[in-house]
Amino acid sequence: MFGLFKKSLGKTSKAMQSVVSKKRDKISKDELEDALLESDVEYALIEIILRELYDEMVTRKQLESKLLATLAWSDYSLEAYEKPYVELIIGVNGAGKTTTISKLASRYKKSANTVLLAASDTFRAAAIEQLTRWAERLEIPIVSSKQGHDPSAVAYDAIESAKAKGIDHVIIDTAGRLHTQKNLSEELKKIVRICTKAHSGAPHRKVLVLDGTQGNSAIAQAKAFNEIIGIDGIIITKLDGTAKGGSLFSIAHALRLPILFVGVGEQPDDLVSFNKYEFVDEFLDSIYESEPRDLSDLSQMDDTQRDSLSKLMYKDGFEMLSKHFVRNMHNWSEYKYIANETASAIEIVDKDGSILKTYTKQMIDNG
Ligand SMILES: Nc1nc2c(ncn2[C@@H]2O[C@H](COP(=O)(O)OP(=O)(O)O)[C@@H](O)[C@H]2O)c(=O)[nH]1
Ligand SMILES: [Mg+2]
Q1: Which of 234, 238, 310, 313 is the most buried (most CB within 10 A)?
Q2: Best substitution site from 7, 266, 273 to test ligand 1's pocket, by max atoms within 8 Å of Cβ?
């Protein structure tokens, strides 16, 4: 459950470690430049980051704040909507759209929501079959048509059907390539129009799926899609197989869009909800020593202690997200939790360092 990005950053960490021989608490700008390049952060962004760091030797905290700033658009909040919540999934062929749709569907289903899929990639018969197999495997309904039929009509029927059945989520697959680029852009625009016609506010979220193994070279492609229909968020797939994890910073920065999820494998569960703090933390773990306060005994808790802490937090309205972060369940704000100076308690702190809650070791051990 914790170390969510370990699986996706493994290769990236190795690449960075190949230029920063030993984990330290301060790293020179030259070495940082190499490490960031190795992880596929775009050079223009590396220049910006380094220019803003005034000391020759850079601490973890200093780099952390710069990296977090590149993900400033990563806070995504759901606006009020009427059921069904309609998501349009777009991206080039092979990016991982269909696989990601099945992962999203599986996630919604697990949280007791109903889902319906729309096979609007009608350009290839294989695409319809692939989505149909996923629908069968996950036991969720699908609306599809024959190859070559109007993808907008499929989207329309899917939304109508979901409305009639009171289904919570509709996820629409789309083609990544048509005979011409112009066809593709016209088709996507038409799907958006028809969705809105079928259900006011739809599509609620237009999600761009990018192949993470492409790293930075996906930026131009992403900008093109954004110009066509306007993207609300990004999902980066295949991070499990690439050393280009640092490209997430440049992609988010270049597009000024939130990264919603990260794909870390081919199975329905291989989708990680993106948390910028956790991601930056694990990214920095590759080359920096961990922060001493986080190494204290209480944050090295065993499973029983962590379970107990998680329950105590839950009672106070905080949902434990990861080994460093909680979310206020009422207003969705995220806060860090750390061991206090003497490692005798865990504190939930806000951005200004004010302590919101304290859990002593005794409270945690007593459960
Ligand atoms: N390792 C890995 N493979 C993935 C991931 N997401 C998708 N794939 C694979 O990428 C290939 C293309 O995926 P697909 O969903 O068909 O892409 P689409 O053309 O955009 O619909 C398939 O072989 C998927 O199994 C991921 O997160 N990790
Ligand atoms: Mg597909």
Answers
A1: 234
A2: 266
How buried is 86 (Cβ within 10 angstroms: 0-12 exposed, 13-18 middle, 19+ buried)?
A: buried
- Atom 19, ligand 1: residue with shortest CA distance: 94
What average pLDDT does the segment 304-331 reach?
87
pTM, full prediction: 0.83
Say what the pLDDT of residue 296 is: 47
CA pair distance 339, 325, nearest whole angstrom: 12
Name which residue sits closest to atom 25 of ligand 1, judged by CA: 266
Mean predicted confidence (pLDDT) in 44-71: 94
* Average pLDDT estimate for 346-356: 87
Length, in residues, of the chain = 367
CA 263 / ligand 2 centre spacing (Å): 15
The per-residue pLDDT for range 107-116, each reduced to its tens digit, is: 999 888 999 9
Q: Which residue type is seen at 272?
A: V
Distances (CA, A) of 335 to 12, 60, 320: 27, 19, 10
Point out the ligand nearest to the CA of residue 127.
2
Q: Note whether 348 and 356 are within 8 A (CB).
A: yes
Q: What is the mean pLDDT of residues 318-344?
A: 83
Cα of 117 to ligand 2 centre, how many Å? 12
Measured CA to CA, the distance from residue 14 to residue 37 in angstroms comes to: 13
- The pLDDT value recorded for residue 333 is 86
For residue 270, the ligand 1 atom closest to its alpha carbon is 27
> pLDDT band for position 4 (50/70/90)?
low
Distance CA 34, CA 261 (A): 27
Q: Is the pLDDT of residue 97 over 80?
A: yes
How many CB atoms are closer than 10 A to CB 349?
16
Cis peptide leading into residue 292 (ω within 30°): no
